[in-house]
Amino acid sequence: MRRRAHFSSLWFAAAVLHLGVPPLWQITLRDASADEIQSADTAELSYEDTYLFDSDEIGAETDYGAEAAGTSGRRFVSTEVIYYDSETDGFGNTTEQGVRFRWEQETLRYGTLEAELTVSNLEQEYFGSPRDDTAATISLRQTGVPVVDEYVMNNALGYHRLRSDAYVAGGYRVRLPNSPLMGFSGEIAGFERRARLFGGRTGEIDGVAFNQFRHDGGNLWGMAYEQDLNDHATVAAQLVSFDGNDLVSEHSSLLVAASFAYPEREMQYDVSLLADDDGNLGLWADAEQVVGNDVLARYGAFYLGPDLAWMDTPIANDQVGFYARADKQSYGLTLSGGYDFLRHGFGRTSNASTSSHNLYFNGSFQFSRALTLGVTGSVQNRDISSDVDDNQLVWRLNNYAYLTSFLGRTRFELFKTRVDADLALGISDSTGIAVSQDWQLPRALRLTTEFRIEDAERNGADFSHAEATVLLRHRLLDNLNWGIGASAIRFDEPQGSASDGVSLNADLRWAFRPDWHVSLLWTYNETTHDALVIPPETPTEQENVGSTFWLRLGFAKTAGRPYRILGLNSEGIGSGRVEGTVFYDENGDFVRQASEKAAAGVVVVLDGRYEARTDSQGRYAFEPVYTGGHQVEVLVSELPLPWGLHNETPQIVIV
Predict the structure, then answer these.
(1) Rounded to the nearest 5 degrees, what angle is found at the Cα of 83, between the Cα atoms of 80 and 86?
(2) How many CB atoms within 10 Å of residue 213?
(3) CA dihedral defined by 256, 260, 264, 267, rounded to 10 degrees?
(4) Helices and strands, counts by H and E, the chain
(5) 390 vs 442, which has greater pLDDT?
(6) Quick check: 398 and 414 in contact, CB under 8 A?
(7) Residues 6+ away with beta carbon under 8 Å from 232
(8) DSSP state for residue 496 in the 8-state scheme
(9) Which of 1, 50, 236, 353 could in theory staple to 345 by disulfide, Cβ–Cβ 3.0 to 4.6 A?
C-alpha cells in the first residue's frame, strides 16, 4: 500500500552533554506542504520528503553506542622491585631497596586516574654517620575531569614536584626553581582561564633508586591564575607563602606576568614582576621577533634585587643584566650569535661584585650529505671587585667537522682556550683535539669510540690530559639488549705528579616473559693519584675505588584501547558527548506524536568526517567529542527516498 503522496518531513533533535550538564539542544524540521510556520529560526532547519512508500526499507538496526561501549579506555598497572647499592672509598655506602606500584585508568566521566605507591628502605653511612630510614610514599593524580561547561579539573595529592605556571616560571635568562611538595594541588582550566590552588609541606629528596621525602619543617601554600584577554594577550599571577623552616626566612611573594603575541607569533613580548613582603623586587622582560623569513631575534633585560625570596628554595637574586641574540637557519646553513651582560652582587654589604660581558657565536654549513663544517667561539671579560680587584679575559674557539664515510660518522674537533687574569690564575693556555667515531656496523650493533687529548700551561707549569672511551650496545634479541662501556683517563701534573682513572660499566635489559622485565646495571670507578712530597722527595700514592650495582625486576601491563576523541580539536581541553534522535515528522509540528515512527538507519555526520547511524529508536551518539564548537548534519545521500533536507546547512553545537 502506497503512502499518501503529499510532502512530509523528518524531525531531528540533538542533545549535547556540556561536560556533565545535559541541556537539550534541538534542530526542528518542518513539512514543506504544511502551513507556514511563524518561527523563522525553526523553519530554516527542516527536512522535507517526496515519494516514500510504506514498503520502502528504512535500513538495518544498529547500536548507536556500540563503539563507545566497546572502548573501555587505556589501563596500565606495574610493579617494580628495586635494589641499589653504592660503595665509595672515603665517602661511604648507600643501600636502597623497596617496591614501587603504579596504576592508571582512563575514563570518560572522571578523567585519567593515577596512583603510585612506594615503600622503600634507605641505609647510608657517610663519614661514620649511619642512617636507616623506611618510608612509604603515595601519590594520587586525576587529570582531565569535566566539571562544568568549558572547564576541566586536574588534581594531585601526595608527593609531587610543584611547577610554576607557564607564564610565571621565569624568562629566557631567569629561571624560578621548583619545590618538592607533600600536599595537594588542584587546577581548573578552561578555554580562556586557568586557576590553581596548592599547599603542603616542603622538604628534601633523598635517594637514587627511590625518592624519599624528608620534611624540613617548612609549609608552603599558594594560588595561581591565568587569563587570556584575547587571541594575543595573556595575564597571569601567582601568590605563595612560606614559613616554618629555620634556614629560609618566612615570606610571602607575589608574581604577576603578561604576554602579548602578534598574529602568527611573528613577535612576542613577555614581562614579569616579582615582589616579596620585605620589599624586595624582581623584574624581567623578554622579546622574540622574526626578522625577514629566517632570522629569529631574542632580547631582554632582568633585575633581581638582593634577598628576593620565592618559595622554599633560594633563587639567583642580587643580579642585573641584559642580553641579545639572533639565530638564522636556511638550507645547509645555521648561524647564531649574541651578547650577554651580567652584574652580580651589586647589593651586598661586603662590597663584592662581579661584572661580565660575554660575546658568543656559532655556525655550521653542510657542504654535502657527507661533510659538515662548523665553528663555535666565545669571548668573556669578567671584573671582580672585592678587597682585591681582578680582571679576567677568557676566550674559547672550537672548530669541528662531521664526515660520513663507509666507516660510519666521524667527528673531528680542535679547540683552544685562553685565560688572562691579573691575580692567581695568571695566564693559562690550553689546546686540544678530540675524535669520535660511530662505526658502521650491522643494525643490531652500535659501537662508538672517542679519544681526547689536551695540553695546558698555567703560570709556567705544564699539564696534560688524555682520555679514551669505548661504548658498545648489542640488541641480541627483540627482548634482550646489553651494553658495555670503558674509559681510561690520565692527568700529568708538574713535579712528577700524575692521576690515572678507569671507569667501567655494563647493563642488561631482558623482557624474559610477556609483561615481565629485569634490568641490571653495574659500574666501577678507580682513581690513583701519585705525588711527590717536597721535602723529602718521597712518592705517595692514594687510591679511591667506587662501585654501583642496580637491580630492577618489574611487571608492567597495558590493556584497553585509548578513547578515540572525535571532532576537530580547535580549542578542546576535554571531552563530552553529542547525542540526539531522528524521527518522521508527519504533521510538521516539530513535536513527535506516538504515531510518528523513529528514523532508523539514518547517517548523522560530525564535523564532516565522523559518522553514526541511528538505531531502531532513531537514536545516535558521538562520544567522546572534543570540547568546543562542532558541526552536525545528516548525510542526504543515505536518506531513504523520497525523504530529503529542506536546508542542508550543517548545524553548530557547542560541547
Answers:
(1) 145
(2) 20
(3) -110
(4) 2, 36
(5) 442
(6) yes
(7) 260, 261, 262, 263
(8) G
(9) 353
Which residue type, as a one-letter code, is found at position 516? W
Q: Which residue has the cell 658502521?
A: 440
Q: What share of the chain is helix, strand, coil (3-state, %, to 5)?
A: 5, 65, 30
> Which tens digit of pLDDT belongs to each residue from 65-75?
334 344 568 89
Contact 179, 196 (CB under 8 A): no
Q: What pLDDT is recorded for position 15?
A: 36
Q: Are 187 and 211 in contact (CB under 8 A)?
A: no
pLDDT single digits (tens) 462-482: 889 999 999 999 999 989 999
Peptide bond into 180 cis (omega under 30): no
> Residue written as cell 712528577?
496
| Angstrom distance (rounded) from CA 564 to CA 268 | 35
Strand-pair partners of 132: 123
DSSP 122-154: EEEEETTEEEEEEEEEEEEEEEEEE-STTEEEE
- 517-538: burial string, b at 16+ Cβ within 10 Å, e else: bebebebebebebebeeeeeee
Residue pair 163/191 in contact by the 8 Å Cβ criterion: no
pLDDT in tens, 543-601: 889 999 999 999 999 888 777 777 766 555 677 788 888 877 777 677 777 777 887 88
Distance CA 63, CA 613 (A): 8
